[in-house]
Amino acid sequence: MPDSHLAIRAEGIGKRFLIGTKAERPTLLQSMRHWATGGQPQRELWALRDIDLELHRGEVLGVIGANGAGKSTLLMLIAKILMTSEGTLDVFGKVNPFFHLAAGLQPELTVSENISICAALLGISNRDLKQRLPAIIEFSGLEKYLFAKLGELSTGLAARVPFTTAIHADVDILLVDEMLSVGDIAFQDQCIKVFRKLIRQGKTLLIVSHNLNLIRRLCPTVLYLKGGKKALLGSYDEAVAQFTADMGVSAPASTSESSDQSIYELRDEVRETGGKILEAIKTLQQSREQSQNLMEEQSAAKRQPAAALVSLETESPGARPATDVVNAADKRARYAEAVRSWKSLLRYSGPVTFSDSFHSSIWVALAASMSPRHSNCLRAGDEVVTSAYNYPGVLAALRIQELVPVLADLNPRSFNLDVDLIERSLTPKTRAVLISHLAGTSAPMDKISAYCRDKKLVLIELNHYATGSFQGTALGSFGDIGACGLLHTIEDPPNWGIFLSRKAVLSDIPSLSEAPARRMAEVLGRVPSISLEGLESSLENCRRIEAATPAWRGLQADYSRFFSQFADHIRIPSSPGADVNKERFTIVLETQAPISAQRLTQHLKEAGFGCRPYLSGGLPYSAQEEANNRLVNSRLLLDRGLTFDLCEKPEEKERFFSTFSSLLHHNALS
Amino acid sequence: MTSPMESIRDFQYWNLFWKLTQVEFKLRDQGSVLGFLWTLLQPVLMFLILYTLFIKWLGHSVGLYAAYLLIGLVVWNFFHKATNLGLLSFRRKSGLLKNYRFPREIIVFSSVAAVFLSSLLEMSILAIFLPFLGARIAWSWIAFPFLVVLLLMLTTGVSLFLSVLAAEYADMERIWDVLANALFYLTPIFYPLSVVTGWQQRLLLVNPLASLLVEARRCLIDGSFPDAAHAAMLTLLACGCLAGGVFFLRRNESAIVESAFI
């Protein structure tokens, strides 16, 4: 007599498939030949074996595992779509599989016809459907489209038809297989809410997903399948720890699928655009795929310099081969020189080290904030408040670390984040603030760092002007960790980057765990690491910036004076207290300006001046276009932000000013 | 596992069957009168060709050749279209197999039923035309629906076998193409049974479709009720074929579903 609260009981269940060795679907002739000659046309494949499971009413079980681990097979067995090959399986109550519910949809028929088809497939009788139809329509929000052909709806809207119908069917046990991968982020969120409600109602839920975040939000108990066998049945933390550890060793290079959904916890205003950002990142990933092989080689090569760094920092070369000693001593001297030069240029006294590019620095800075050796380290699933416009790679890095970016708008004066904007995006899950200094100026770091200290938030600071200060303190040194470099365009010259750190977090970085580093490498095209490869180049740039700074300062003042006469048409992003050394000048064209940003850029380029949209080109920018639509100031910076190379020669500068004025005046008059 | 009778009684599956039938029907004929007229084009054309070709040769030996040919074509048309649609039904609906749980035969039933709906219309048109082609309305016509039910059961049974085989074997579609073509000529559709005699005629009548046609013409053209012995044989055969089909499908159910995953 089974316990009356039992929902599912499986004892040693297994599923065997016969896989054709040649053709996928044999022809009659082939089968007859094999039958006649006694040949074995197929081989056995155990998709699942020796699974014991007991699930009670109201329980939720997450099922995780690599592709082909047997997750879907398990659900299909419980749904009785597939029959077990061995073992006993008892399922008590009505089961409703939530697989690819769209399978029964007919794009040529209307929405209302499709609802009734779905209902029939889910075993809802006509009478029940009539009763529930108003609720179904209301929930789906499709009342306007009832008589439109389903095929005419967008994919996202169409996906609501089967889902909404399915949750209105009476079920005791729900089986959900990766269905949240369809539909937009808002829809996924809606799904999660519904599942929570169903759990409260005492339904039993089995969820298969690659999205660990989703599993974490819904499932206290997790079954980890590996190669068709039960690897672990335990708490979320245990199962995921083992799973990620296994994946780190033997995982195929696939990240996009599993982590694509990790931004679903975004704020309302950006949820819908999250998907687009991910798409863009995917494209970026694809374009980087070619460099993957290269990366494999490089990764081996780069770990050495990282190791060298540790020995340099700790001043203990250890047991190094004799031939390396001279080299190491030489490097140590160069390293010390670079550190000294940068510290003096930045007027900064904390720890400094180097990487091979600004992007590498960004990635490592994030990884460093997650190092478990810190008491206040970030963990997967934590929310990070950051600006909607960001440097390329930031979102991808957040995602790979399974941090959840929450995009905030910019302050309309400084075009940077401020405390108010951060506070507005704060939730109990927010654990960090990631500041990217933008628009030729900086965020008000004094207030932000005080705020973060107060709220115990990790502060990460990205500064692509390389040098600059806020109220006399170097940009990049306010945060727990700061990454600096020069980033002119989206291209990431593997050149140099520097880190500044408030705490001694940098020493942990060489021990970055392999798995995230690998995944980062897939996007970045190389393994981001602290590396002395950028040392020479950074030293060079340090000297160049130091030498040029007085001239830049003068020019900045000139440009600022010049542009300020067009106050009606031009906004100069500014933040009191910020002092940034840069070889460019950034403005934002007001909407009432008489000339469009595009035309202005075009004319100035034709006249031979360095001029480009502030967020020039590149995928991650345009992909965020929609996010910026809602985040008005970010949008303004995206659409109307322009940046000019400073003209150092006085006559060139004058020519620039006169060209610019005439362009503006000419257009104002015409 | 539910028996077919239980499935029929079970309301929710009846609903599903009807919905799937509607979908098939609407998608095939675009759910419009015009769409239906287009599907009539093929049998009408076939009729015109066969009629002009054979009226001189067969006109004397067959009374009311036009009516004779038309009945043959309507019956054949249903059998041929339904088996063809039924054959591939599991492959066309593999998405449903993989994602929903319901008695699998419903997929074949609904395919056949969708064709049956349009054939019913063809048959009513046939009934309207028959008196104009010289057939007299007789009491025996009431036996025709009974024969239609036998035809439906027979066709469904054959479709069930074919669909199961087609789910497993890639070349079933081609094979049935050839077999159906042969069957067209081995069934007295445009020629009378009397073109052959003796054992050859008896051999032709082994084909249940042939004897069904003989009986259909008997009641529609000749105005006499079907031969009791023949009708009993046919009924037995049709029931056996349908039951066998369902049984065959049930036996192979897991193979069908698994083949949907390939």
Radius of gyration of chain B: 19 Å
Largest interface: which pair?
Answer: A-B, 36 and 33 residues
Query: What is the domain tally of chain A?
Result: 3
The tally of strands of chain A reads 23
What's the gyration radius of chain A in Å? 29 Å
Q: Taking all residues together, what is the mean pLDDT of chain A?
A: 74
Regarding quaternary structure, what we see is: heterodimer
Strand segment count of chain B: 0
Please estimate the helix content of chain B: over 70%
* Biggest β-sheet description of chain A: 7 strands, mixed
Overall tally of structural domains of chain B = 1
Question: What CATH first level of the largest domain in chain A would be assigned?
Answer: Alpha Beta
Q: Name the shape of chain A in a single word.
A: elongated
Please estimate the helix content of chain A: 40-55%
- Write down the overall mean pLDDT of chain B: 86
CATH superfamily of the largest domain in chain A: Type I PLP-dependent aspartate aminotransferase-like (Major domain)
Q: Structural class of the helices, strands and pairings of chain A?
A: alpha/beta
Reported CATH architecture of the largest domain in chain A: 3-Layer(aba) Sandwich
| Secondary structure tally, helices of chain B | 13
* End-to-end distance of chain B: 25 Å
Form type of chain B: globular
